[in-house]
Amino acid sequence: MRGVCGCGLWMAWLLAVAMPASAGTATVAAASDLQFALTEAAERFEHETGHTLRLNFGSSGNFRRQIAQGAPFELFLSADERYVEALHDEGYTLDEGVIYAVGRLVWLQRAGQGEAPGEDMPLAGVEKALARYANGERPRIALANPEHAPYGVAAKQALTHAGLWSQTEPLRVLGENVSQAAQFALSDDAQGGLVAYSLALAPPLAERSEYMLIPEGWHEPLRQRMVLTRQAGEAAQAFYAWLQQAEGRAIFQHYGFSTD
Question: Residues 174, 140: contact at Cβ < 8 Å?
Fold first, then answer.
């Protein structure tokens, strides 16, 4: 019996040494294109440090407003750097933050929906939807709401670039954020949608979908910036630093983000 107890005490001592003396909890607000990438990053960070993270995913515009209204978020990872810059100008953040990734936009559709668009015509799926609409059908085209979701803004810009924005009005269905838009894009009544590349690469979506990257020149760069708010504690500051190191950057790269 003494041997068992001794082993238990030894393991407890090892765990105590491995974890920070004051492991804490941090509340994080993150753009929904990070749903899979940041969840993976948070799991590794928690395992390595003993800190606990409470992740909240949604549209960057909504989080920007909530933080200005006093929401207790300690770290904000936005899909559009302008929301972070606005919060800094208004005095809600510790500094200007850093760009942690640059995102990409894709056309996403269900596997088996038909031939996937090619590089020469990345919005061929939209053209197909419009042809079906002309024949009396109403296939949906999904995108995030451009009013507060950066990927929705990029989707609108890409459709405008291709001369398809006004034509698609009767077919568009708007997600509250880009993650919801991806769900709509893969629904039975949708032709597809314009969503984040990071979501298209995530296993739960990748196994039942196809995608085509939209040329970067068709929309403004999706520069994603993160920042600590004035409420940030030790755990939030540690995660902010960890995401800028090699392990955190590698996770973002795995999900299709550029980190250079």
Answer: no
Partner residues linked to 190 by β-bridges: 140
Question: Where do the DSSP E strands lie in the chain?
Answer: 25-31, 52-58, 75-77, 98-103, 105-110, 140-144, 172-175, 190-196, 209-213, 222-228
Structural domain boundaries of the chain?
25-102+221-254, 103-218
Q: Is the pTM of the predicted complex or chain greater than 0.90? A: no
Q: Is 22 marked as a binding-site residue?
A: no
Of 42, 172, 37, nearest to 104 by C-alpha is: 37
> Letter for the amino acid at 253?
Q
Decide if pLDDT at 61 tops 70. Answer: yes
CATH 3.40.190.10 fits 103-218, yes or no: yes
Q: Which CATH architecture has domain 25-102+221-254?
A: 3-Layer(aba) Sandwich (3.40)
* 178 marked among binding-site residues: yes
In this predicted model, what pLDDT tens digit does every residue of 105-151 receive, in sequence order?
A: 999 999 987 777 788 899 999 999 999 999 999 999 999 999 999 99
Model confidence pLDDT, tens digit, residues 11-45: 333 333 344 445 799 999 999 999 999 999 999 99
Average pLDDT, the chain: 91
Q: Are 37 and 248 in contact (CB under 8 A)?
A: no
